[in-house]
Amino acid sequence: MNKLITIVIATAIVVGSGAFYGGMKYAENKAVSNRQQRIQQFGGSGTGSLNGGSGNRTAGGFTTGEIISKDDKSVTVKLRDGGSKIVFLSGSTEVTKSVNGTLVDLEVGKNISVNGTANSDGSVTAQTIQLRSNLQ
Question: What's the CATH number for 49-132?
């Protein structure tokens, strides 16, 4: 009888430990999956960063930095971490400042915030661009 009770208790401990471990692994995988879904939902690749308060924000379709070059179809933005990002322009790209701006207002040396669609090559197609103070 004692042997049977010992076997039942040992089995219950093994099954309970296995269930606990399995539940922890399931929760861990679920958290990673949810994080990946949020990154994809907001257009990120998982390699960008959101450096809170630093002004260098790159997550999918949102970019902030200084214009370092410009042509008729794109601007290149220098990020605060030293990197850069190409931002494609279109006739429907809205450029704002204290008053509405135009594509002509995008000049080398100006700081901008870009909101748009992240492209698979890491560039962004702009929907809106906000000219920002160089003091930021």
Answer: 2.40.50.140
